[in-house]
Amino acid sequence: MANRKDNPNEYKFGRNHRLKVKKGKGKVNNQNHRTMSSFGSNNYGNDNNYKQIDLHNNALHQAKDRIKDELRDAYSDSLPGVKFIHGNNNGTAIRDWLRSESFLQFISSKKMTANPWYNSDGVTNVSFGIKN
């Protein structure tokens, strides 16, 4: 019997859920959540033109409000993405929220074509795709 460490995708949506996440570019799993993919012109790892937001001195509830406001503004201004700098020692609550299903649900509820990605523990990037 596999455990969480050997097969983390099996436990992603709860142990009894029996849903496996599909792998591949732009695939959608059975819960209609987009998996990590590339949106053509946006290259993961290239965050040079992204708007940078420093969240070091914010509590989680303040950071959530600021993240939501900054994402709405950057998306409506047609920027390529936003780079959130939260740190990896004291910013773990912010980091965990940015990389959670709750954050992805916020993005989909606002009808944004956006995808979070990261190269390091202290920074989370959100790339915007083509608007619908």
Report what the structure shows.
The structure is a single chain. It contains 3 helices and 4 strands. It has 2 domains: 1-37, no CATH class; 47-132, Ribosomal Protein S8, Chain: A, domain 1 (2-Layer Sandwich), CATH 3.30.1370. The longest helix is centred in the middle third of the chain and has 17 residues, at 60-76. The chain is an alpha+beta fold and 132 residues long. It has a 4-stranded mixed β-sheet with strand order 1-2-4-3, with helices on one face. Helices cover 25% and strands 17% of the residues.
Give a summary of the structure in a few sentences.
By secondary structure, the chain is α+β, with helices and mostly antiparallel strands. 25% of the residues lie in helices and 17% in strands.
Low-confidence stretches: 19-23, 27-43
Total count of domains: 2
Number of strands: 4
Span of the ends, CA to CA = 43 Å
Give the number of helices.
3
Mean pLDDT equals 76
Helical coverage, percent range: 25-40%
- SSE succession: EHEHHEE
Basic shape? globular
Compute the gyration radius: what is it?
A: 15 Å
CATH level-1 class of the largest domain: Alpha Beta
In the CATH hierarchy, the third-tier topology of the largest domain is known as Ribosomal Protein S8, Chain: A, domain 1
Task: List the strand order in the largest sheet.
Answer: 1-2-4-3
CATH architecture field of the largest domain = 2-Layer Sandwich
Q: What can be said about the biggest beta sheet?
A: 4 strands, mixed
The percent range for strand residues is: 15-25%
Structure class: alpha+beta
